[in-house]
């Protein structure tokens, strides 16, 4: 997500005694990029796994939206309802031509600030069709003989790289290449619009 760092520099006033050094300090605070008009999150819980390849969730900036979508990160965890030995991870891919599945209502996404405008990005669930591009991350499933779980895997955009930008016609898909119906995926995705 686009961000700016504001640094305030100065010195700490002290009363020296003898040869005491006076040291300085720096305070850094993150501030919202002024071009960002809204920040949003969509979250699914306990989505049953599929045995075949499946697109669980997509974030798509529709053609003609008039905005850029900035991927902020994903949060993924997995539990087993009855044991699973499947090792195929949940993967994030850049994608285009996303359609089908179940288009979520704007109200299904939470706004970071309630007065932000409704998002233009489309969230789709239930195996939307997509043309996949490069993979961007992997998150492991739960592997257990009975019930088991993974820790929440936070997938942020690396600091110092600039925004992970989705221009109109681009998106991200969270998918598995194979799976197990005993897996339960918890998926959240964060984005900003500018």
Short précis:
By secondary structure, the chain is mainly beta. It has strands at residues 3-11, 24-32, 38-48, 54-60, 69-80, 90-99, 102-103, 110-111, 122-125, 129-139, 148-149, 153-156, 164-166, 170-176, 183-193. The chain is built from no helices and 15 strands.
Fold blueprint:
Blueprint: E1 3-11, E2 24-32, E3 38-48, E4 54-60, E5 69-80, E6 90-99, E7 102-103, E8 110-111, E9 122-125, E10 129-139, E11 148-149, E12 153-156, E13 164-166, E14 170-176, E15 183-193
Description:
With 194 residues, the protein is mainly beta. It has one domain. The protein is 0% helix and 54% strand. It has no helices and 15 strands. The chain has strands at residues 3-11, 24-32, 38-48, 54-60, 69-80, 90-99, 102-103, 110-111, 122-125, 129-139, 148-149, 153-156, 164-166, 170-176, 183-193. Strands 3, 5, 8, 11, 12, 13 and 15 form a seven-stranded antiparallel sheet that branches. The chain is globular and about 50 Å long. The model is unreliable at 6-12 (pLDDT under 50).
